[in-house]
Amino acid sequence: MPELPEVECIRRALLPLIGRCVESVDLRRRDIVENPPARRAAGALLAGDVIRGFHRHGKQLAMEGGSGRVVCVQLGMSGQLLVREGAAPKPPSHVHAVWVLGDGLSLAFRDPRRFGGLSLYGSMQEIRAERWAALGPDALDHRAEDLAAACRGSGRKIKDLLLGQGAIAGVGNIYADESLFLARVRPTRRAGRLTRAEVDGLSEAVRRVLARAVEAGGTTLRDYVRPDGGLGGAGALHLAYGRGGEPCVRCSTPLRRTTVGQRTTCYCPSCQV
DNA sequence: CACCACCCCTGGACGC
DNA sequence: TGCGTCCAGGGGTGGT
């Protein structure tokens, strides 16, 4: 399940594609495009464009073409971007779109569960205004004050607030549990009742947990693979996520497993206050 | 505004 | 081995 670190790793892995020309686009499932362009808007998926850049905000990835047009990729639960050189022996299933880049090189969007999808914009300015404006600042470089402002006066559970992308963008279920564990804050605490010191600590924890996961190459869990097919390596860093019933690494108390905001949640009932 | 139920979808884990 | 069942979850919607 790609969260911010996985998407950032994917982005970095795709950077070598900058400067390549999109010779054609094979859209195999139209319904994965959230806002299909008018039929005449040829090139909306960047056919004919030179790839100019890859940008990320939270968990979303934007591929920008030389025309200025942008394809936004939302990976959802099981989405992958795969770079292929030459014809692979067995093409993967559930590939919904392929950008053909010449010299046998191609970029494929694969998403078995189809919780993800593509959306199309005329420019980076447009995607920022129409799509990314609803998101909070990117979690990797947000300021504590951003989180504090979102918490102020809020009666929501703090984990709920982290999972919604409006406060800060990019934290999903895994890193929410990890960040709250590191900051010793109970996921069910009301956001508005955290002290400023706790908010500062949580903000720091979010940044540290995400940065560490990026360094480790993203989390390896179920569906995540890097564009080159390799696996990530942050799974071993998990101290709370998925460890319900196991002893806390700090105090040995068995971690508790509950549900917060319809999401499985693990925390230490002893050292997360 | 908070929060809940539910939906989308499929693969992997697990039980028999 | 092969089937059924449950579960995972990002994001959105619609109701209370």
Summarize the structure in words.
With 273 residues, this protein is α+β, with helices and mostly antiparallel strands. Helix content is 23%, strand content 21%. The protein is built from six helices and ten strands. The strands form three sheets. The chain has a four-stranded antiparallel beta sheet with strand order 1-6-7-5, with no helix packed on it. A four-stranded antiparallel beta sheet has the order 2-3-4-8. Helix 1 runs parallel beside helix 6, helix 3 packs across helix 6 and helix 5 packs across helix 6. The mean pLDDT is 90. It binds a DNA duplex (16 and 16 nucleotides) through loops.
SSE inventory with pairings:
Elements: H1 4-14, E1 24-27, E2 51-57, E3 60-65, E4 70-74, E5 80-85, E6 95-102, E7 105-110, E8 117-121, H2 124-130, H3 144-151, H4 158-163, H5 173-183, H6 196-215, E9 256-260, E10 263-267
Antiparallel strand pairs: 1-6, 2-3, 3-4, 4-8, 5-7, 6-7, 9-10
The protein binds a DNA duplex (16 and 16 nucleotides) through loops.
